[in-house]
What we know:
By secondary structure, this protein is an alpha+beta fold. 26% of the residues lie in helices and 9% in strands. It has helices spanning 9-59, 76-83, 108-112, 277-287; strands at residues 68-69, 74-75, 94-96, 179-180, 183-185, 201-205, 230-234, 239-242. It has a four-stranded antiparallel beta sheet with strand order 5-6-7-8, with helices on one face. Strands 1-2 form a two-stranded antiparallel sheet.
Amino acid sequence: MREKKGFTLIELLVVIAIIALLLAIVVPAISKAKEYAKRVVCGSNIRQCMTAVSMYSDDNNQRIFQNYHVSSGQTAVEYREATGNPLPGYNSYMCYHPNYPNTARHLAVLYETGYISDASVFYCPAQPRTTAEYQIPYYYEFYVGEGNQSDYSDSGDIGSYEWGTRLPADTRGSGSRLVRTSFNYWVYEQKQLEKISGYKPIVFDNVQDWRAVPHRKTRGSVYESNPSGLSAAYADGHVTFCNDAGLFDDEDNWPWNKPGSLSAGSNSVGQGPGDHPDMFEEVLRRLQAH
């Protein structure tokens, strides 16, 4: 009777090496596929938002809902007249504010009026959860009480509730009580959709800060990864993923506040396009090329 022979050590090492090689090929491909799937869903969400904006406009004699300085209740035009400054872009993703808790602003108008029935449409699935590097939550689950528990500063905000009915506070404390979307909504101080040039973006991915841009070339530290592009819907109704290199090119960290302008490990906010109208307007100008 012949004795059965097992694998030799060399054969086992060869098999392990082959498996490792296959994993090295497959895992990045799976990761890229997941990121692409998120991009597709993001584009679909933005398209739904823009379609709803158009429907709202059609039903209201071409009128559209304005951009507001949400803490004061002033429209963008009123804010400019009162302060002499353009409205900061960060207002355009704010939907409910404690000064006006029952008043819907920006994309929330579509939810309140029934043009959008699922508020999760207002969020990009690629939007990162909060990290030690960036505190502001821009993901849907946070605003229905089902987010990461460590993101809440008040345990009373944890628990399922309808989007827009509660203003949860993040780790920065009660002063952060808001409801935000991860999409900006911008109408260029116009009251009618037909007054906005077709090449201008209306609904687009978060541009508040370099670290908050959802679509990234690599995952990991936002200080080490670069954005890959922005999804945007335009006044003429078309939707695209803008990945032109010029969108993120800058000089001396302008208009984007790249990691070189930040202290590693810092989670402070207010340094990017969302808080600086000149930077915000430049990002919009670059989006207009698409």
